[in-house]
Amino acid sequence: MTNDLDRRLAGMSPAVLSLFRLVYGSLFAGYGAMILFGWPVSSGHPVEFGEWPGWYAGVIELVAGLLIAVGLFTRAAAFIASGQMAVAYFWMHQPLALWPISNPPDGNGGTPAILFCFGFFLLIFLGPGRYTMSGRRSRLR
């Protein structure tokens, strides 16, 4: 029973990896759009053009998130996004408190940064999956 389930699910892995990449990239791009444009919802603290580090983080999140979502330069974009989230966690969240699960003052609110960091880290090594713009570009040549 288990071997049969493993075999059936293994065949779906490339498509599910593409879905994971699409969802993770879209969510990341959404955070970047929220920082830069206050869309789809306001971030609660507006960031001025060129303001360090918020504006630059928003640009990285928007651009890397869109690249990851469509599967274009996925490994490079995931490397940058994972690194940015590691820096964000240790620079912005970890100094507030040791525990990431809860928001301050009990925790540091860094759970999204950790999840994004390791989700993108996984994409660096697994790649983008079956359905990508990179794959489409190479087939069109």
In total, how many beta strands?
A: 0
In whole angstroms, the N-to-C terminal distance is 43 Å
Structural class: mainly alpha
Number of helices: 6
Q: Helicity level, as a percent range?
A: 55-70%
Query: Which band does the percent of strand residues land in?
Result: under 5%
Overall residue-averaged pLDDT value? 91
Largest sheet: none
H and E order: HHHHHH
- Can you tell me the number of structural domains? 1
Shape: globular
Q: Which residue ranges are poorly predicted, with pLDDT under 50 across at least 5 consecutive positions? A: none
CA gyration radius, whole angstroms: 17 Å
Structure description:
α2 packs across α5, α3 packs antiparallel against α4 (74-93) and α4 runs antiparallel to α5 (111-126). The protein has 141 residues and is mostly helical. It has helices spanning 2-10, 13-37, 54-70, 74-93, 111-126, 133-140. Helices cover 67% and strands 0% of the residues. It has 6 helices and no strands. It has one domain.
